[in-house]
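Hi P.,

Sorry for the delay on this. The queue was packed all week, but I finally got your sequence through. Input first:
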Amino acid sequence: MPEPRIHGREFVRTFFTTPTAEKGVEDSAKKLRKAIELRGMQAPDVWVPDNEDATAPNMRDEGAQNIAEVVAEGGAEFPGEIHPRVVWHRNDPEARYKGLQHMLEIADPDKGAVENIDGFVIPEVGDIDDWKKADEFITIVENEYGLEEGSLNMSVIIESGQAELAMGELRDEMGKPTNNLERLFLLVDGEVDYTKDMRAITPTGALPEWKELRHNTSRGASAAGLIAVDGPYDDIRDVDGYRQRITENSAMGMNGIWSLTPGQVEVANKEPLPPQEGSWLIDADGREVELTDEGDVQVYEGDRVSLEETDDGYVLTVGNDEQTLDEDELKQELVDLTSYVPSMDDIVDSMEEFEAAKEAGKGAIAMTRATTVRIDGVEVDIQSDRMWDEATYQALMTPVKLFKDVYENRPDQHEELAELYSEDVVERAMEVGE
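Then the structure:
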């Protein structure tokens, strides 16, 4: 079983940052006021009024004031959590002190915002002692205003090798009476500053992928009962690339990602959820291609895979690899080349079937998936069986748990979820696993 989450949310899909103050406009808090009005799929799970990198240094004092004002006015109606980011740096005492001053400004009960503030985001942390300093500053804020210790969460941005290594120490440090590190909530990757800290160079100047960092952050979050979030995807027009990044992250247990625009928020809110419709994929010479659904037949329409029926059997060509196969061999080859992406309805059906079998005293059952594949006009019936036991059931429950977490924490998205899946599927999804 995974480590239990410390806080109410088990998943965070979206981490959306907004500048807190801009110079030269009539209302310096205009972008904050616009962001706090977001609802439905355009509203993030976690909103981050960003009083650090997104706000000019000479505007940050005003930015802290703006956060308090805007959150006091509209925070109660905002559907996600609110976690302002303040200035901090592992090597700069002045920056840490300024961060403390801004937290005191934002959390002052007389300002009326703190009851709608869920925590603070601390950037540029270093080794574990630095994390403890940030925790202690938040404890000071709580004590200054008579708040319950631990009531304000702390999320950190992993932007240095020190911070990456510190994640490995969390299990030993959390829970000690000398700190309040149980307040930790999100571990968020900051690949830009991490690249600078690592002195990394690429020929084009583009960021490295840092798959190891993402894996380590996901592992650190899992081990400590926290939530991992990937950093910003700067090319806001590359929607397909953003989706691909989310898919890659989800495969390593990182279901959240930084969002820079409401459009990215909407994509990131939907992408980790199970699809509305199931689909068949084929491995076309190293590239996964979705087959065209024509009812009872799934059709391949590309040129990387070809199939010809001969007097002696079949000739299957994938890229430059040509095979002569009999019918049984062809069916097995196509089973190996194809895969199925289940819809939410498919997942719930399988869960219900396994639960019924378990109730009847069966510890394992075979789940069958069958279809007809057409390549170059040649149709082949394929079928695969997958053995389900309790471990399989628990692993494949994760997307359903994600859906439940969203449904329970984001009532503003209920209507859109019902439109996506239907009321019946939503009701059944909420009941499986209970």
